[in-house]
Every structure is written in C-alpha cells, then in structure tokens.
C-alpha cells in the first residue's frame, strides 16, 4: 500500500502523540490498587488508539500489528509488575516512535531498529512473522515509490515561488533545492513563509542554548514544540525533506 506524503505525516504525528502518552504513563503513581488500575487503563486506552489510527487511515499492513500490540497490553492486566517494567524499558512506546520516524524518513536503519523492537523477547506474546513482514514490506514499497526524500542533505534551500536568475546561478551545486507543491493554496503558502522563518530562528536559538548546556526542561520542550510545528507546516505545503529534517530535530 502506497501512502502519500500528507497521509504519512498525519499518521506519524498521531503515532508520536500515542508514543509520548505511553512514555508518560511510567511517571504515574502506583502506590495503591486504584493507582495501578488507572495505570493499566491508561495503557489500554493508548494501545486502543493505535488500532483506531490504523483503521481510520485504512493502513492494512499496520492494523494487525496494532491489534497484536493491544493484545499484549490486555494480557498484562493481572501482571502489573511486568506491565510497569515494559513501560520503564520503553517496550510499548519505542516501536511506535520508530515507525513514525520511518514513515517520515524512510531509512533502512530505522526499519531495522523497528523490526528489532517488535521482535523483542520481552513481548508476552510474540508477533507473527507474517504480519511483521507485511508492515516492513509496506514501508519498503513506500520507499521505492518515493522520489522526494533524500537523507544525504547537505543544505536546505527553500525557494518560494521564484528566485532571480542571478540568485539561482549563485546557489552551490551541492544544495538540495526545494519548492512547495504546485497545488498548495496561496494563503497556506503565504502563511508558511510569514510564520516559519521566525520559528526557525527561535528554534535555532533554543538549540544553541541546549548545546551550550544551559537549557532546562522547559527549553527542551519549547524546542521540541517548535520543531513539531515546523515539521507539520512544511508537510502541509509539500516540503517533505524539511518536514523530515524538523522531525529529526524534534
């Protein structure tokens, strides 16, 4: 099944949200039985969201994988110790993060990490090899059909509607030249070029602060939010490589 860039980005964003929520569950209190029950319910809700995401986007290769992952959560209803351990090790969230990244970046190394995460021996019920292969094949097929992604980007030059001929001549041959999709609504494009440059400047400042070792938790969160915003707005106007680059920053 081929997914267009807009669908891939939409799925990836929802997967990232589920992964973040699952990762946060490990911070919930577990002192009382009521706490433990809520801990399990929260995990169950998020794993059920995965199934709904796959079905909503009619991603047939993903649906059985999400159903399998959900069943692994249900199995642990009576084994809180193992449930908590799986959260602490990132078993429930890591594969989702890797899948989201693979949808956006189409990287062989990420696909290998995704496979390794799904066949981890800590899963209570092992994944069926056939449904695993179907998912991996869908990602490989998508990569083969894609003509816009390039992970060896040395420099990103975002071109609005046109550039003067002199400016084009001065662009270094190693630049990865990009332009938005032809069918993007003018108002969307105008908003992108109005808002995104300031967002890029701000996230660059935050990254410099973090690199200098002066960043706190709020700094990291602000940088991640801005990178997420840039990723989404870039994907909307068809700048997939920029969206992928912003995803890596995020």
Automatic annotation (TrEMBL):
Could you confirm whether the keyword Phosphoprotein appears in this record?
yes
Instruction: Identify one Pfam family in the record.
Output: Hpt
Per its record, how is this protein called by name? Answer: HPt domain-containing protein
Give one GO biological process term: phosphorelay signal transduction system
By its UniProt entry, which InterPro entries does this protein fall under?
HPT_dom_sf, Sig_transdc_His_kin_Hpt_dom
Question: Phosphohistidine-modified residues are where?
Answer: 228
A single GO molecular function term of this UniProt record: protein kinase activity
Alphabetized UniProt keyword annotations: Phosphoprotein, Two-component regulatory system
Q: Where is the HPt domain?
A: 181-250
Q: Which CDD domains is this protein grouped with?
A: HPT
